[in-house]
Backbone:
């Protein structure tokens, strides 16, 4: 009964007998993608909850739509890099560093563009989820090429099979560098990868011992990369083929066999399912429902479609108490705003810098645990920066020129000089966007509010507000930060 | 005239803020009236050319190009001297307001900027990952008075560093004026929500409003600040101190110490900015009669490698020299002079754990209980007159 009341309050629009209706459709699409448009909501509103999730899962992609920037995949052979380091002049070195920074920025912009234009936002959300799970950071990996290749790998498996993804990531060159497996050799093991694969990628803390880590590390000895191509390479002479004991099992395990031992543990399915729950459903998983879904995930041999279908059709997903309880990440906020308001910039580099400014520098998670997310996204600095970004986007008079760089802010002035400020390219086309709302002023206000916010606004919205003034009030309402 | 304005008029506002906070003070004797100012030397300042063991021949062997000529060094004693760019600090050295701590570091040092500053910011061991900054950890256990404008203010950067994570009331601003104008657009709507995410947003909004209300100030200092980004930050920091309500911590930073090449010129310029900036800040705080209740502390992710590199610079290293300044500082040399023979993989060994500096701030400066704030007890330095 309570649910019905909420529906009626929040959705005076049409609820088709067989369809999930606008409110559920909006909820599903904003949790599994970025802020949906009215058109997308209408399409899904006619479907049942199960049909809607099936449609989302049927349309996932394994390849990007947007072509990667030319040359971004080119790996600089390490001997060549070393020679350059030794022989380059100061000028050449500076140019090289600048080129590397530009390349990294281009890759971030490419990804954000893909998020902006994709017809499968779920693919992007899952790719980002795995980027924050199997963390590799450019701070350490350096090579943009390796991170570009890793992104392609993550999206290929994004909604595929977790076991296959785990095996693939373990031999991903960016990961091999990031967690120091390049220096993991027989007799001189480096335990970094073995530790994180248990603590952060599969089992979670408390389900393994230090001895398990030491033994597992030996199994991954010799997993390294080719210095010339940047591809994964197994060096047999560096590999420790001796007997190991991992999680109570004894054998002459290699790395793949250790990964299979980890996948066989129930803790792994629960750990991954809980993380997906926090990503899509709510900050606090329900223990019983979690166990049920995790068991089915493991029984499906880690089929990600299975676990996502279970989570997204669970009663908990639609529970009134779980609506609007997740904080938008900076990427959610920026990409969602561009999508919702039909803003089509050619150059997404300013957007990449904006997400960084808000605390999420793509390809550079803060540490191996990734961005903590949730409430941690919001502090005084990031909240004011979010509000500033939003008020600038919708303050029409500032957009065309946006000429004057904010005085006294050296970073903004630098970006301005380099043409990396959000300017005309990010212009909100007010007239066409507002024309989608019809009827009386009160109706238009109600419809716009329901489209823009995940729940009723926190602040009082004056009935006289229309168009740009109304929109500013909505995006500056604290509820706009939630999904 | 309201009571607060009246008190401000009399120059008694800090006292009023304190008496209001007394009831809420975390532990008996806790004294957050004493201000801590952190100065981050971003990029990793080369401590060996800042506090120079000029009597050690090994120093000149390791630094054939970068070694400072003996006659230029500002001698502190017969072994140790300061970089000539720090000359404006010599009066402070003489008046014993400047303490030099050598050999500050931690076990199993990490040489990545990023990871090492995270270790410093979170006061973690080298192999532990913590989500909360060390001041956040302190303030969650012993909150500063609610009457303070904020627990801490970060000036001139967006990174909350030691105040990141958790429920600290930390405010980041470039200048008080800009912060106030941004904050002014916030709806003045106090409130709460049963939705925890919304409640968090409302709490942060309330923190911003409270800080904005307490940070209004337009004190005209006689002190002249250097005309640079760092000078502007220090001036903004002084404005924060002058404001009607207090804060427990202010953090400023000076960028550019990652001197892999052309170190001689770059470091000379930066150290001059540093020393002259802090001297100006000291004058401003003396105008406010706050210098004796202010402790300044420098820090950085790491020091640099003793052996200079082939590009007239130095690469990432480990242990480093740092400074404490303030009216209550017992000036002098602390820690151990770096041993330049018997290096650890080419790098210095530390003699003082950086968490001892933090413990000095918490136990000695703020009189918080000695305990295991940072995952173990670290012995504070006896570097304060209090």
Residues:
């Amino acid at each position: 009964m309570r649910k019905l009341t909420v529906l009626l309050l929040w959705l005076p629009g049409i609820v088709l007998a067989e369809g999930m209706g606008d409110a559920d459709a909006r909820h599903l699409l904003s949790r599994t993608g970025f802020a949906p448009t009215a058109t997308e909501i209408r399409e899904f509103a006619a479907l049942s909850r199960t049909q809607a999730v099936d449609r989302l899962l049927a349309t996932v992609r394994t390849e990007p739509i947007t072509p990667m920037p030319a040359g971004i995949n080119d790996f600089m052979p390490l001997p060549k890099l070393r020679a350059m380091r030794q022989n380059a002049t100061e000028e050449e070195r500076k140019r090289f560093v600048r080129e590397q920074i530009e390349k990294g920025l281009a890759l971030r912009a490419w990804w954000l563009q893909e998020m902006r234009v994709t017809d499968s936002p779920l693919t992007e959300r899952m790719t980002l989820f795995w980027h924050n799970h199997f963390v590799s950071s450019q701070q350490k990996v350096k090579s943009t090429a390796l991170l570009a290749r890793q992104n392609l790998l993550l999206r290929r498996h994004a909604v595929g099979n977790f076991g296959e993804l785990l095996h693939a990531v373990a031999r991903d060159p960016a990961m091999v560098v990031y967690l120091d497996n390049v220096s993991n050799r027989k007799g001189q093991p480096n335990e970094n990868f073995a530790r994180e694969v248990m603590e952060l990628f599969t089992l979670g803390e408390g389900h393994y011992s230090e001895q398990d880590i030491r033994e597992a590390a030996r199994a991954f000895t010799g997993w390294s990369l080719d210095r010339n191509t940047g591809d994964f390479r197994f060096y047999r002479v560096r590999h420790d083929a001796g007997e190991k004991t991992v999680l109570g099992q004894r054998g002459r395990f290699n790395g793949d066999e250790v990964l299979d031992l980890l996948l066989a543990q129930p803790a792994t399915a629960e750990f991954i399912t809980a993380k997906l729950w926090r990503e899509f459903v709510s900050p606090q998983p329900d223990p019983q429902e979690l166990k049920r879904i995790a068991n089915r995930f493991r029984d499906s041999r880690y089929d990600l479609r299975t676990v996502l279908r279970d989570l997204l059709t669970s009663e908990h997903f639609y529970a009134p108490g779980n609506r609007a309880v997740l904080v938008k990440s900076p990427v959610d906020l920026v990409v969602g705003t561009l999508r919702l308001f039909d803003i089509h910039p050619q150059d997404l580099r300013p957007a990449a810098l904006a997400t960084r400014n808000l605390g999420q520098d793509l390809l550079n998670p803060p540490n191996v645990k990734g961005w903590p997310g949730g409430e941690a996204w919001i502090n005084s600095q990031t909240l004011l920066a979010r509000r500033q970004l939003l008020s600038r986007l919708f303050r029409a008079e500032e957009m065309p020129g946006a000429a004057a760089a904010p005085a006294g802010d050296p970073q903004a002035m630098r970006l301005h000089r380099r043409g990396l400020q959000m300017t005309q390219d990010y212009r909100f086309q007010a007239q066409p966007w507002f024309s989608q709302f019809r009827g009386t002023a009160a109706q238009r206000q109600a419809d716009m509010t329901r489209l823009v916010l995940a729940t009723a606004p926190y602040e009082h919205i004056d009935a006289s507000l229309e168009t740009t003034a109304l929109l500013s009030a909505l995006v500056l309402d604290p509820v706009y930060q939630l999904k | 005239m309201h009571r607060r304005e009246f008190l401000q008029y009399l120059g008694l506002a800090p006292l009023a803020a304190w008496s209001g906070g007394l009831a809420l003070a975390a532990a008996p004797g806790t004294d957050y009236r004493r201000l801590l100012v952190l100065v981050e030397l971003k990029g990793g300042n080369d401590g060996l050319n800042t506090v120079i063991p000029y009597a050690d021949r090994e120093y000149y062997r390791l630094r054939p190009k970068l070694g400072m000529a003996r006659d230029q060094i500002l001698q502190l004693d017969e072994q140790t001297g300061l970089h000539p760019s720090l000359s404006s600090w010599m009066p402070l050295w003489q008046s014993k307001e400047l303490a030099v701590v050598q050999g500050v570091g931690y076990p199993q040092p990490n040489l990545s900027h990023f990871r090492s500053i995270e270790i410093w910011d979170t006061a973690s061991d080298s192999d532990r990952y913590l989500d909360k900054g060390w001041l956040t950890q302190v303030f969650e256990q012993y909150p500063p008075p609610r009457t303070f404008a904020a627990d801490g203010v970060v000036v001139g950067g967006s990174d909350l560093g030691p105040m990141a994570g958790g429920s600290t009331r930390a405010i980041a601003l470039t200048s008080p004026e800009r912060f106030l104008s941004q904050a002014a657009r916030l709806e003045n709507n106090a409130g709460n929500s049963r939705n925890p995410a919304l409640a968090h947003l409302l709490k942060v909004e309330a923190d911003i409003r409270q800080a904005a209300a307490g940070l209004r100030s337009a004190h005209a200092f006689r002190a002249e600040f250097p005309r640079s980004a760092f000078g502007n930050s220090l001036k903004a920091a002084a404005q924060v101190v002058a404001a009607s309500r207090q804060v427990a911590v202010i953090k400023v930073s000076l960028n550019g110490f990652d001197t892999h090449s052309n170190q001689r010129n770059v470091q000379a310029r930066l150290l001059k900015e540093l020393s002259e900036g802090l001297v100006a800040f000291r004058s401003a705080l003396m105008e406010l009669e706050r210098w004796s209740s202010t402790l300044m502390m420098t820090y950085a992710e790491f020091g640099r490698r003793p052996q200079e590199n082939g590009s007239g610079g130095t690469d990432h290293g480990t242990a480093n020299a740092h400074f404490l300044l303030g009216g209550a500082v017992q000036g002098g040399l602390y820690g151990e002079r770096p041993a330049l023979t018997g290096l650890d993989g080419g790098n210095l060994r530390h003699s003082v754990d950086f968490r001892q500096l933090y413990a000095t701030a918490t136990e000695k400066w703020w009189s918080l209980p000695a305990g295991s704030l940072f995952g173990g007890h670290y012995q504070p330095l006896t570097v304060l007159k209090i």
Summary: The CA atoms of residues 6 and 12 of chain B lie 9 Å apart. Chain B has one domain: 34-365. The first strand of chain B starts at residue 35 and ends at 41.
